[in-house]
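Tokens as discussed.
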């Protein structure tokens, strides 16, 4: 029986969401595997045993002691949303110790984690993205110059982050400085991006050596100003799968998702978010390489809508690593 580490937690504001994903994955991964949740927060690496008992992970080889014996894992399913599990750091560690894992490798993880760099990379391959500027600490650029370039309204977001933490929709010029300050609390880089009006959709997919599975498209209708944290996790949005769009647009989004997957060198399950403008133009929002895996998350919804069994999907991803 293969032993699986479901690696969750992390050092960002998304830690709580990550632990929810880990709980979801405990039910999604078939019982033919021996499953454990491993929480990583800073230097505290802990594996959860039965009855809420925990024991530390030995970072030298990602092992732990169970019933007095050293125990090792065969595979890591990374579900940390944020650092160090989404930006390539943990992937590099697992490569060093020879541990197979579920998601993108170092380069693809680092590239997609930085929203600005990823979008600028993909625009070279005819992927439409919103006009934007990147801000770094100690960099001087006036709010007036930003607004002149991007207009109002606009979005301010951490360049490295997710779950809508630190994101603000700015409608008035005098609100921009506070929005930038808020975003800098989540990331060392901040992206300011033109507002793109339209229908928000998202599409997931995965590949193995033997198959390519592109999932149905989900339409996102937020009850708030935009698809913020409350809309995502407090039932303040409607998520419609399959999306209420034409078959032509659906195929275009699915084809674009597969194109992006290949361009960034993705692995495992990936989800890509878009805005469809009224003209029908598809604009990339961001690429998620460790998407949420709670029962309410987009991916389980899309897998169900595709007529697939989520346990079979998990088995595909795990066995492909071997």
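Sequence:
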């Amino acid at each position: 029986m293969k032993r699986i580490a479901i690696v969750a937690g992390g050092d960002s504001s998304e830690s709580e969401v990550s632990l929810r994903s880990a709980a979801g994955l405990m039910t999604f991964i078939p019982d033919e595997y021996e499953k454990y949740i491993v929480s990583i927060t800073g230097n505290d690496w802990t594996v959860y045993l039965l009855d809420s008992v925990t024991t530390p992970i030995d970072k030298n080889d990602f092992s732990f002691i169970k019933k007095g014996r050293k125990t090792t894992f065969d595979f890591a399913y990374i579900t940390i949303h944020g650092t160090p599990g989404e930006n390539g750091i943990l992937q590099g560690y697992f490569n060093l110790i020879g541990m197979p894992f579920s998601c993108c490798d170092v380069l693809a993880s680092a590239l997609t984690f930085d929203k600005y760099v990823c979008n600028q990379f993909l625009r070279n391959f005819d992927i439409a993205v919103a006009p934007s500027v990147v801000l770094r600490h100690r960099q001087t650029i006036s709010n007036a110059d930003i607004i002149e370039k991007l207009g109002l309204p606009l979005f301010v977001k951490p360049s490295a982050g997710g779950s809508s933490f630190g994101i603000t929709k700015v409608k008035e010029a005098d609100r921009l400085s506070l929005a930038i300050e808020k975003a800098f609390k989540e990331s060392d880089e901040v992206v300011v991006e033109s507002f793109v009006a339209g229908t928000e959709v998202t599409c997931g997919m995965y590949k193995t050596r033997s198959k390519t599975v592109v999932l149905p498209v989900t339409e996102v209708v937020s009850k708030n100003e935009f698809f913020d944290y409350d809309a995502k996790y407090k039932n303040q949005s409607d998520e419609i799968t399959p999306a209420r769009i034409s078959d032509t647009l659906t195929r275009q989004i699915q084809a674009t998702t597969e194109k992006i997957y290949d361009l960034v060198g993705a692995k495992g399950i990936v989800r890509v978010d878009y805005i469809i403008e009224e003209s029908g133009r598809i604009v990339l929002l961001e690429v998620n390489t460790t998407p949420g895996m709670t029962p309410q998350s987009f991916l389980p919804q899309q897998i169900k809508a595709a007529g697939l069994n989520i346990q079979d999907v998990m088995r595909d991803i795990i066995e492909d690593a071997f």
